[in-house]
Amino acid sequence: MKVLAQFKTIPNYVDFCLPELKSLIAMHNLDWREVFKHEFVQEGQENLTNNNDLINTSPYYPYMYHQNKKLNQKKQLLPISASEIRHTSFRRFPFVYLEFPNVEICQQIIQRSILIDVFIEIISEATNYEDIVKFADKEILFKHNQEDQKILFEVDPYNSHLTQQEIIDRIEIITESLNMRGKIDLKNPQKKFWIMERHVDPFTKQTDSSITNTLLDIYFGVEIGRSKSCTRISQKENQTNKYDLRQRAYLGPTSTDNILSFLMCNQGLTRSGDMILDPFVGSGSLIIPPSHFGAICFGGDLDPRVLHGFGVGRLNKKSQFYQKNEEYCKEMKPKIMLNFEQYELNKPNIIRMDCINTNLREVEIFDAIICDPPYGFRAMTRTAGKKEKKRNRKDKQSTNANTQEDEAQHEEDDQQTGSPLLKQTEQAKIVEEISNQMNGLDIEGKNTQPKNEEEEKKNNENGEERHSYAPTLTVSVDYIVNGLVRLANRVLAPGGRLVFLYPIEREHYNSTGIEKLNYPNFTLVDYSENPLSEKKSRILVTLQKNKSVKEFLEEAGYKNLDEMNEQNQFQNQTDQQQQQQQQQTQAQ
Ligand SMILES: C[S@@+](CC[C@H](N)C(=O)[O-])C[C@H]1O[C@@H](n2cnc3c(N)ncnc32)[C@H](O)[C@@H]1O
User: Fold this and answer.
1) I need a surface site. Which of 27, 322, 455, 557 has the fewest CB within 10 A?
2) 192, 226, 260 — which closes off a domain?
């Protein structure tokens, strides 16, 4: 059946709309190309469309205003990869036509979705109200237009505003001209009819004064599903509001926001009974949605303070749960479990470990790994190990004959520590700052590092308990992502998804950079940009594991994962350098 979806255009998550829908489609074992088929232009029908910007050759070419120039060449029969289709691809976004096998699937998908607002079965679509009445589909109208039914009309002018009188006028045109027979009931309607208008983006209108009539399309239809997590529904029923961080009893320094946590859970195709791992679990925000859907959750974190609620984590005194259960909240150990108590969810299995450098056995048991790694934007990236004493570069320069070479090597090492898409110096600065703050703090946030050997000896003799934890080192974005892929190769089931956030500087970002990153034994399923500020963003990357690690290593000719990691790191750096060189040559 053909349905019209209207997406919620939450500014920071617009780019997540299609990847989320595609994941929900995959959860129902449907091919997303089939579901989106109404948005593709059939070969030979190019001229039926009145938009000159469209590229439309094969059945799998959507109407698009694509950023990828390569695809703008006509008659180029390239299959569209999952990541090439963006929200901007659709000429009517946030309205998109979809094809589903039945109503039940539509309803299951919309109940789970965060970003689809409503699904509508269309009775008619036109650019003016006269045509809406004239071209109404009699069969669909007859099916829904019953005398004994309580009905309601919703009027939604996307990108515009209507007065109360204008809304009433529109409802009257439809009810009178199409002889709508149901009785209006505002409180308990059995059927909801939608009149939707799509208007020109106000920004375009401002810049193009020749536009006089802003109305682009009108859609009239019947609601067949509405998102539960819609902001218009009361807080009690609303799953994303219920999990709002402002009402959460225990918060870490970088608790992932609840909309993003639910979106990441959907990207991970999380189902009831799945085993989900967050190797950078912090206060547990990312395993709350999988727990909500009945998954068995596991978390790891190197920093015990965030798990226990000392130093970096805190009880949220503003949350109602805390206010009602103050004593209980204070006593609860470890504090991360408090959030699961609050939401009455199964408690996760938490261990303290270095997930970047893990030597976990190769047991590919997890259905998804979902995480927000600590890149240094908001949290510190660390790995177990001892910090080398800082070199005194000036001294070295004056005494050592190889200083220049050393310095060049050092510079090169520094260059290689950042994200390929993040400006190196900026990241190094943040990393260093946070590193200094964290060094030498104990589980209670106090500095308990013995000042000297004597003090340490004295402490040991007195049998004094010290809460210090293993020394840690600060590491780079590449290092974390490689570690994460290595971990996923060890413990993620073949076909399982690795969903993680990746920091970028907007100025330097282009989607091809992400598409070119090579994750051995993984296929890029999708990526979406979540802007954090004018300059910084993070990309939600969704990868899918191809083969079992044994099979992959054998085929690729690597002895083990470490060898694979080293070579891959080198390959990524070479690709990056080539890309930079190409960009420089193009700029010249
Ligand atoms: C961005 S935070 C994750 C926040 C988490 N999603 C939450 O909702 O609280 C990253 C976490 O990774 C932890 N971490 C840093 N380095 C680690 C490592 N090598 N292994 C495991 N955890 C690490 C930090 O202690 C921090 O809690």
Assistant:
1) 557
2) 226
